[in-house]
Amino acid sequence: MTPCRTLAAAVAAACALAPPAGPALAQTATAAARADVDVRTRMAMHVNTVVFDRLAQLLEPQEILGLIIVAQQAAIAINCEGFDVDPGRHAAAVTRLTGKLSAMTEAGQNNLPQDIAMSGYALAMGGELAAAGYDIAAFCARGETMRAEFAENPDSAWLLVWTDR
Fold it and tell me: For residue 118, is it within any domain?
């Protein structure tokens, strides 16, 4: 596979996220009943659908997916040993994903669009924190999978917000 062709591909590979809306999809792209999808994935699908709905008028889908990836990493760092967020990398990734929002306000104004985007980030992270409680071992294993995916896809390395080991 060539390095991360799109941010959406990185999410699908690294995070196993389902589509943001509609019925759950199996890997064959055949619609599946939500009840046939494991609980942790259903939880992520539900929360991330809300995140997409809230941010769709402000950010492109790839930018929203990027925020979700960063939020997942933050949640993994909170719950799993061997993962720590690098504040500089975190700030750089969030700025790259949401930087265009600063143009929506004038100097001296509160940046409401940025606040809304960060509320979506917080919502995604909260959903991940809740999902971690369902199966912490599987949740932490996803972190190792994500780390490996980032190593294989240098074009998406800017999304990696964890410290180096």
Answer: yes
CA distance 75 to 25: 25
Number of domains present in the structure of the chain: 1
Domain hosting residue 117, numbered range: 7-159
User: Whose CA is closest to 10, among 163, 148, 161?
Assistant: 148
pLDDT in tens, 55-108: 999 999 999 999 999 999 999 999 999 999 999 999 999 999 999 998 887 777
Quick check: is 2 in a domain? Answer: no
Per-residue pLDDT tens digits for 30-55: 666 777 888 888 888 899 999 999 99
Give the integer Cα–Cα distance in Å for 70 and 125.
9
